[in-house]
Amino acid sequence: MIKSIYLLRSNGEILYSKNFIEQEYEENLLIGFFNSVVNFSREALKSVVDFIDLGRESKAILELKPEEEIFGAIICSAKDNNSLVKKILKDILQGFIDEFSPNYNLESRKNKDKVDEIFKRTMKGKGRYSILIRFIISWVLLIPLGGLLVFVNIWASEVFIFTGEISSFGLERLITQTIPQIIIVLFLESVVLFGIPNFISGYVILHIKYSFINTLIYLILILLAITLSVRPILIYPILSFLPFVVISSLGGAYLGNEYGKTKRLS
Protein backbone atom coordinates (compact mmCIF):
# COMPACT_ATOMS: atom_id res chain seq x y z
CA MET A 1 0.00 0.00 0.00
CA ILE A 2 1.38 3.38 -1.01
CA LYS A 3 1.04 5.82 1.88
CA SER A 4 2.52 8.95 0.33
CA ILE A 5 4.53 10.13 -2.65
CA TYR A 6 6.97 13.02 -3.10
CA LEU A 7 8.58 14.44 -6.24
CA LEU A 8 11.40 16.89 -5.53
CA ARG A 9 14.24 18.84 -7.07
CA SER A 10 17.75 17.80 -6.07
CA ASN A 11 17.96 20.89 -3.84
CA GLY A 12 15.00 19.65 -1.78
CA GLU A 13 12.28 21.83 -3.32
CA ILE A 14 8.94 20.02 -3.38
CA LEU A 15 7.42 19.76 -6.83
CA TYR A 16 4.54 17.47 -5.91
CA SER A 17 3.40 15.54 -2.86
CA LYS A 18 0.32 13.57 -1.91
CA ASN A 19 -0.72 11.62 1.18
CA PHE A 20 -3.05 8.60 0.89
CA ILE A 21 -3.62 7.74 4.55
CA GLU A 22 -5.06 9.54 7.57
CA GLN A 23 -1.71 9.61 9.33
CA GLU A 24 0.22 12.64 8.12
CA TYR A 25 3.99 12.82 8.10
CA GLU A 26 6.04 15.85 9.09
CA GLU A 27 6.73 16.91 5.52
CA ASN A 28 9.64 19.29 6.16
CA LEU A 29 11.52 16.70 8.22
CA LEU A 30 10.92 13.99 5.63
CA ILE A 31 12.03 16.16 2.72
CA GLY A 32 15.18 17.17 4.55
CA PHE A 33 15.86 13.54 5.40
CA PHE A 34 15.32 12.30 1.84
CA ASN A 35 17.49 15.08 0.42
CA SER A 36 20.29 14.33 2.89
CA VAL A 37 20.20 10.61 2.11
CA VAL A 38 20.28 11.20 -1.65
CA ASN A 39 23.13 13.72 -1.48
CA PHE A 40 25.18 11.67 1.00
CA SER A 41 24.81 8.41 -0.89
CA ARG A 42 25.61 10.08 -4.19
CA GLU A 43 28.73 11.85 -2.88
CA ALA A 44 30.04 9.30 -0.38
CA LEU A 45 28.85 5.99 -1.81
CA LYS A 46 28.81 6.96 -5.51
CA SER A 47 25.34 5.43 -5.75
CA VAL A 48 21.84 6.19 -4.55
CA VAL A 49 20.34 4.45 -1.53
CA ASP A 50 16.96 3.32 -2.83
CA PHE A 51 15.51 1.63 0.26
CA ILE A 52 15.06 3.04 3.78
CA ASP A 53 13.39 1.20 6.65
CA LEU A 54 11.25 3.76 8.48
CA GLY A 55 9.94 1.38 11.15
CA ARG A 56 6.25 1.07 12.13
CA GLU A 57 5.64 -1.23 9.14
CA SER A 58 6.70 1.47 6.69
CA LYS A 59 9.60 1.98 4.32
CA ALA A 60 10.70 4.55 1.75
CA ILE A 61 11.74 3.83 -1.83
CA LEU A 62 13.85 6.46 -3.61
CA GLU A 63 14.52 6.98 -7.31
CA LEU A 64 16.88 9.62 -8.70
CA LYS A 65 16.90 11.25 -12.14
CA PRO A 66 20.26 13.05 -12.04
CA GLU A 67 20.05 14.30 -15.64
CA GLU A 68 16.84 16.15 -14.72
CA GLU A 69 18.03 17.07 -11.22
CA ILE A 70 14.89 15.64 -9.64
CA PHE A 71 14.12 12.56 -7.55
CA GLY A 72 11.08 10.78 -6.19
CA ALA A 73 10.22 9.08 -2.91
CA ILE A 74 7.37 6.74 -2.02
CA ILE A 75 6.46 5.73 1.52
CA CYS A 76 4.75 2.36 1.44
CA SER A 77 3.96 -0.69 3.53
CA ALA A 78 6.97 -2.73 4.66
CA LYS A 79 5.32 -5.78 3.06
CA ASP A 80 5.30 -4.30 -0.44
CA ASN A 81 7.74 -5.66 -3.00
CA ASN A 82 10.71 -3.29 -3.41
CA SER A 83 11.12 -3.93 -7.13
CA LEU A 84 7.43 -3.33 -7.83
CA VAL A 85 7.32 -0.05 -5.87
CA LYS A 86 10.56 1.12 -7.50
CA LYS A 87 9.14 0.39 -10.96
CA ILE A 88 5.98 2.34 -10.08
CA LEU A 89 8.10 5.29 -8.94
CA LYS A 90 10.25 5.12 -12.08
CA ASP A 91 7.16 5.17 -14.31
CA ILE A 92 5.64 8.09 -12.39
CA LEU A 93 8.88 10.06 -12.61
CA GLN A 94 9.20 9.37 -16.33
CA GLY A 95 5.61 10.44 -16.95
CA PHE A 96 6.26 13.55 -14.85
CA ILE A 97 9.39 14.38 -16.87
CA ASP A 98 7.64 13.81 -20.21
CA GLU A 99 4.82 16.14 -19.19
CA PHE A 100 6.60 18.96 -17.37
CA SER A 101 10.32 18.99 -18.27
CA PRO A 102 12.33 21.21 -18.17
CA ASN A 103 10.58 23.85 -16.05
CA TYR A 104 8.38 21.61 -13.84
CA ASN A 105 5.81 24.33 -13.27
CA LEU A 106 3.06 22.88 -11.07
CA GLU A 107 1.61 26.08 -9.69
CA SER A 108 -1.71 25.69 -11.49
CA ARG A 109 -4.35 23.26 -10.31
CA LYS A 110 -4.61 21.88 -13.82
CA ASN A 111 -0.98 20.76 -13.79
CA LYS A 112 -1.38 19.11 -10.39
CA ASP A 113 -4.38 17.23 -11.73
CA LYS A 114 -2.19 16.00 -14.58
CA VAL A 115 0.23 14.52 -12.04
CA ASP A 116 -2.71 12.82 -10.32
CA GLU A 117 -3.65 11.30 -13.67
CA ILE A 118 -0.07 10.08 -14.21
CA PHE A 119 -0.22 8.41 -10.81
CA LYS A 120 -3.61 6.79 -11.46
CA ARG A 121 -2.49 5.56 -14.88
CA THR A 122 0.70 4.06 -13.46
CA MET A 123 -1.18 2.38 -10.59
CA LYS A 124 -3.80 0.77 -12.84
CA GLY A 125 -3.83 -2.96 -12.19
CA LYS A 126 -1.29 -2.71 -9.37
CA GLY A 127 -3.64 -1.91 -6.50
CA ARG A 128 -5.79 -4.35 -4.60
CA TYR A 129 -9.39 -4.89 -3.52
CA SER A 130 -10.48 -5.48 0.06
CA ILE A 131 -9.75 -8.91 1.52
CA LEU A 132 -13.48 -9.80 1.31
CA ILE A 133 -13.62 -9.01 -2.42
CA ARG A 134 -10.41 -10.95 -3.04
CA PHE A 135 -11.80 -13.91 -1.08
CA ILE A 136 -14.97 -13.89 -3.20
CA ILE A 137 -13.00 -13.60 -6.45
CA SER A 138 -10.81 -16.53 -5.43
CA TRP A 139 -13.83 -18.78 -4.95
CA VAL A 140 -15.45 -17.60 -8.17
CA LEU A 141 -12.34 -19.06 -9.80
CA LEU A 142 -11.81 -22.07 -7.51
CA ILE A 143 -15.32 -23.57 -7.62
CA PRO A 144 -15.52 -24.15 -11.41
CA LEU A 145 -11.81 -24.98 -11.63
CA GLY A 146 -12.04 -27.50 -8.79
CA GLY A 147 -15.16 -29.07 -10.30
CA LEU A 148 -13.47 -29.40 -13.68
CA LEU A 149 -10.33 -30.95 -12.17
CA VAL A 150 -12.39 -33.47 -10.14
CA PHE A 151 -14.22 -34.47 -13.32
CA VAL A 152 -10.92 -34.87 -15.21
CA ASN A 153 -9.52 -36.86 -12.28
CA ILE A 154 -12.46 -39.29 -12.34
CA TRP A 155 -12.28 -39.60 -16.14
CA ALA A 156 -8.53 -40.26 -16.06
CA SER A 157 -9.02 -42.88 -13.35
CA GLU A 158 -11.70 -44.60 -15.45
CA VAL A 159 -9.26 -44.75 -18.36
CA PHE A 160 -6.08 -45.75 -16.56
CA ILE A 161 -7.21 -47.63 -13.46
CA PHE A 162 -10.72 -49.05 -13.87
CA THR A 163 -10.28 -50.46 -17.38
CA GLY A 164 -9.76 -53.97 -16.07
CA GLU A 165 -6.32 -54.32 -17.61
CA ILE A 166 -4.45 -54.34 -14.33
CA SER A 167 -5.92 -57.69 -13.30
CA SER A 168 -4.30 -59.31 -16.35
CA PHE A 169 -0.82 -58.07 -15.44
CA GLY A 170 1.75 -60.47 -14.04
CA LEU A 171 3.27 -59.75 -10.65
CA GLU A 172 6.58 -58.64 -12.17
CA ARG A 173 4.94 -56.15 -14.51
CA LEU A 174 2.71 -54.94 -11.71
CA ILE A 175 5.72 -54.18 -9.52
CA THR A 176 8.10 -52.83 -12.17
CA GLN A 177 5.68 -50.83 -14.35
CA THR A 178 2.15 -50.42 -13.06
CA ILE A 179 2.82 -49.34 -9.47
CA PRO A 180 5.50 -46.76 -10.47
CA GLN A 181 3.10 -45.40 -13.10
CA ILE A 182 0.33 -45.08 -10.51
CA ILE A 183 2.73 -43.24 -8.16
CA ILE A 184 3.65 -40.80 -10.94
CA VAL A 185 -0.04 -40.27 -11.75
CA LEU A 186 -0.81 -39.58 -8.09
CA PHE A 187 2.12 -37.16 -7.93
CA LEU A 188 0.85 -35.27 -10.98
CA GLU A 189 -2.69 -35.40 -9.60
CA SER A 190 -1.53 -33.74 -6.38
CA VAL A 191 0.17 -30.95 -8.31
CA VAL A 192 -2.67 -30.37 -10.78
CA LEU A 193 -5.67 -30.90 -8.50
CA PHE A 194 -4.27 -29.09 -5.46
CA GLY A 195 -1.09 -27.16 -6.33
CA ILE A 196 -2.30 -25.13 -9.32
CA PRO A 197 -5.68 -24.03 -7.84
CA ASN A 198 -4.00 -22.96 -4.60
CA PHE A 199 -1.36 -21.05 -6.57
CA ILE A 200 -4.20 -19.11 -8.20
CA SER A 201 -5.87 -18.62 -4.80
CA GLY A 202 -2.65 -17.30 -3.25
CA TYR A 203 -2.11 -14.94 -6.18
CA VAL A 204 -5.63 -13.51 -5.94
CA ILE A 205 -5.89 -13.22 -2.14
CA LEU A 206 -2.36 -11.85 -1.65
CA HIS A 207 -2.45 -12.56 2.08
CA ILE A 208 -0.60 -15.63 3.30
CA LYS A 209 -2.88 -16.32 6.29
CA TYR A 210 -6.11 -16.20 4.28
CA SER A 211 -4.45 -18.14 1.44
CA PHE A 212 -3.76 -21.01 3.84
CA ILE A 213 -7.35 -20.84 5.13
CA ASN A 214 -8.54 -21.11 1.52
CA THR A 215 -6.22 -24.09 1.08
CA LEU A 216 -7.87 -25.95 3.97
CA ILE A 217 -11.39 -25.18 2.73
CA TYR A 218 -10.51 -26.22 -0.83
CA LEU A 219 -8.97 -29.50 0.37
CA ILE A 220 -12.07 -30.38 2.40
CA LEU A 221 -14.41 -29.54 -0.50
CA ILE A 222 -12.41 -31.59 -3.02
CA LEU A 223 -12.29 -34.61 -0.70
CA LEU A 224 -16.03 -34.27 -0.12
CA ALA A 225 -16.73 -33.95 -3.86
CA ILE A 226 -14.73 -37.11 -4.65
CA THR A 227 -16.40 -39.01 -1.77
CA LEU A 228 -19.84 -38.16 -3.18
CA SER A 229 -18.85 -38.86 -6.78
CA VAL A 230 -19.47 -42.02 -8.83
CA ARG A 231 -16.01 -43.24 -7.82
CA PRO A 232 -15.69 -42.59 -4.07
CA ILE A 233 -12.90 -45.18 -3.97
CA LEU A 234 -10.64 -42.50 -5.48
CA ILE A 235 -10.50 -40.87 -2.07
CA TYR A 236 -8.08 -43.55 -0.86
CA PRO A 237 -5.21 -42.82 -3.28
CA ILE A 238 -5.44 -39.14 -2.34
CA LEU A 239 -5.46 -39.96 1.38
CA SER A 240 -2.45 -42.23 0.88
CA PHE A 241 -0.65 -39.24 -0.66
CA LEU A 242 -2.04 -36.79 1.88
CA PRO A 243 1.35 -35.44 3.09
CA PHE A 244 2.32 -34.56 -0.47
CA VAL A 245 -1.19 -33.19 -1.15
CA VAL A 246 -0.78 -30.85 1.82
CA ILE A 247 2.71 -29.83 0.66
CA SER A 248 1.43 -29.16 -2.88
CA SER A 249 -1.51 -27.15 -1.54
CA LEU A 250 0.44 -24.99 0.91
CA GLY A 251 3.37 -24.66 -1.49
CA GLY A 252 1.08 -23.54 -4.30
CA ALA A 253 -0.61 -20.97 -2.05
CA TYR A 254 2.75 -19.64 -0.83
CA LEU A 255 4.24 -19.37 -4.33
CA GLY A 256 1.08 -17.70 -5.64
CA ASN A 257 1.20 -15.20 -2.79
CA GLU A 258 4.90 -14.44 -3.42
CA TYR A 259 4.36 -14.07 -7.16
CA GLY A 260 1.37 -11.80 -6.56
CA LYS A 261 3.57 -9.47 -4.50
CA THR A 262 5.71 -8.81 -7.59
CA LYS A 263 2.65 -7.73 -9.57
CA ARG A 264 0.43 -5.91 -7.06
CA LEU A 265 0.79 -3.97 -3.85
CA SER A 266 -0.12 -5.82 -0.66
What share of the residues lie within helices?
Answer: 55-70%
The major β-sheet equals: 5 strands, antiparallel
Task: Return Rg in Å.
Answer: 27 Å
Give the N-terminus to C-terminus distance in angstroms.
Answer: 6 Å
From N to C, what is the helix and strand string? EEHEEEHHHHHHH
* Beta-strand content: 5-15%
Spatial order of the strands forming the largest sheet: 2-1-5-4-3
Structural class: alpha+beta
Shape: elongated
Please tally the helical runs, counting DSSP H or I stretches of 4 or more residues: 8
Question: Describe it for me?
Answer:
This protein has 2 domains: 2-123, 2-Layer Sandwich (Beta-Lactamase); 131-261, no CATH class. The protein has a 5-stranded antiparallel beta sheet. The model has no long low-confidence stretch (mean pLDDT 82). Helix 2 runs antiparallel to helix 3 (109-123) and helix 4 (131-160) runs parallel beside helix 6. It is α+β, with helices and mostly antiparallel strands. It has helices spanning 27-44, 82-100, 109-123, 131-160, 171-205, 208-227, 235-240, 242-261, and strands at residues 2-9, 14-19, 51-55, 58-65, 70-77. A hairpin with a 4-residue loop joins strand 4 and strand 5. The longest helix has 35 residues, at 171-205. It is 61% helix and 13% strand. It has 8 helices and 5 strands; from the N terminus they run ββαβββααααααα.
